[in-house]
Amino acid sequence: MVAGCKKKEPAPAAAASAPEFNWQIDQFADLKILRYQVPEFEALTPKQKELVYYLSEAALCGRDIFFDQNYRHNLKICRTLDAIVQGYKGDRNDPRWGEFMTYAKRVWFSNGIHHHYANDKFVPGFDADYFAVLVKGSEGVSFPLAEGQSVDDLIAFLRPILFDPGVAPKRMSLDSTKDLVTSSASNFYDGVTQAEVEAYYKGIVDKKDETPISYGLNTRVVKKNGKVVEEVASVNGLYGPAIAKIVYWLEKAAGVAENEPQKKVIETLIAYYRTGDLEKFDEYNILWVGDVSSLVDFVNGFIEVYEDPLGMKASWESVVNFKDLAATKRADIISANAQWFEDNSPVDPRFKKKEVKGVSAKVITAAMLGGACYPSTPIGINLPNANWIRKNYGSKSVTMENITYAYDQASLKSGFGEEFSYSPELLERAKKYGPLAGNIHTDLHEVLGHGSGQLLPGVAAEALKNYHSPVEESRADLFALFYIMDDKMVELGLLPSMDAAKAEYDLQVRNGLMTQLTRIQPGKSIEQAHMRGRSMVSHWVYEKGKADNVISRETKDGKTFFVVNDYQKLRRLYGELLAEVQRITSEGDYEAAKNLIETYGVQVDQDLHKEVLERYAKLHLAPYSGFVNPVYTPVVVDDKIVDVKVACTEGYVEQMLRYGKDYSFLQ
Fold this sequence. Notes:
By secondary structure, this protein is an alpha+beta fold. It has helices at 12-17, 46-60, 63-70, 74-87, 95-110, 128-136, 151-163, 194-204, 240-255, 260-275, 278-290, 328-336, 338-343, 387-393, 401-411, 416-420, 424-449, 468-484, 488-491, 498-513, 529-544, 567-587, 590-600, 606-617, 652-662, and strands spanning 24-28, 31-35, 189-190, 219-224, 227-232, 296-304, 315-323, 359-371, 380-383, 395-400, 551-556, 559-564, 624-628, 631-637, 640-647. It is 46% helix and 15% strand. Strands 6-7-8-10-9 form a 5-stranded mixed β-sheet. Helix 4 (74-87) packs across helix 5, helix 12 (328-336) packs across helix 17 and helix 18 (468-484) packs across helix 21 (529-544).
């Protein structure tokens, strides 16, 4: 997946009503909460609406899983915070109450006590004594007490977890000088070391298998009776109560599937959830990628490995969506030319696919977000992740148009572009072409970038370990950046001129070298995979292009700017780096990946960082955004759903408390 920002051009009616819609509903800490609309939902048939409703319920039932994956005590913490918010009878005008609410909102947003991007534990803005007052001052609510545990015991248990910076300080450690497993607070491993985990998988992985399962994708590695074993997620296994609820709603969805292929997809996913068998998961993925005729679609399961320092364990996530038929036309053009793009890429022929199979793409309207996709969500998806399935059966790519449109609407008149654009001419070009160029970049990244190239025989998908995710995201970005400046874009009617491509180059350079630093705390290095990838790409081309002044660092009115001076030379540099990143990926060259990311993608120029933060602070913006979901209400007549109504009015706190009440299935 990839996160970013682009815009959907609305229909005239939507444009007329847009100012009345409240896109941003809250802002706190470094976060803002947005709403998204679900255009054309009313145009779906009653049966399709019912399908969306059932799939949406399944998407919400996995909420507890992701909380628990992030840290083993997150659920107890979240239940406690929910109880306080609902039951505290003390003074809610006390400034400390405001600090508590900010903390609770942050925990909800990050699905736990660690920052969703930076991985660091955030410390409450109130002290432990006040926390005790809050717990003891809450009435008419239940706290998550273990058997024999008192409220005082609960307070004592949570005190160091919440207030001691040395306890579980980082959700995911990427410091390769440390044991990545024991230095990470995430709950993918328990009681084992990195060496033990790697030895365990070395003993069971068959490197000669050309169609391997995604080892460890849906498991937790633990030590029992001195032996390293896996706990498998399934209806009767790890996370069983939540998975059973997911299956319940998937079974209802199968009953109203649009067609037999889609019904088979859902039934196979159910069979996988019942057993946890990853061969069944591969079967599901092959069927899912082959279903290109259904209007309604979904992702549901243990999918992306971004949160695992070893790049093996997948976080649970879900997205329910339906196709935007008009906007999908541009994605169809790109996927129809997939072989041309593969053949003409600048990478070594050994690493290219001889025959590109099954590349399908569409622009979608997101209808529900869940798990790792909520509240913070990607704007594009390319799945499945198994390389052999991509090679033999293809991949399915989507761009979430209504999400990017919501981002754009919420950012209007923010002043960000005016502050960080070097000249009025560059700003005007960005306003004119930026939304379209951003769409095309995302399409190229998802539709072709992630699906391009191939691993050499015997190279495991997890060979790059903790550098897998930033390398993979940079590979897809480089593919998009190399081709967006190609004349083929104009020839295919995807871009009106190369000025649009130049606008995207300007944005990517500025973001990778400077503006994404608004998301980093002073003195910190870059941790998040997408950010490391963007930083690596931009710093590499900046350094390699210095001799030819491809990108220059300019100062105007005491402010720093990065300006592209030669777009064609920059494109050639992107091509050179794409070739090297593909080589690293195809050969599984861990040391080269480490050197590239650590040299260009991690460290921060502290003086520049300080300047960027000061300029950004004057705009009174929040660098991170997330969403509340719509609410779907079935209309029932004679025990049958005859229609489903959608409302986009629920507040952030209201939604989080409702989800905590209605979708809490794990202890």
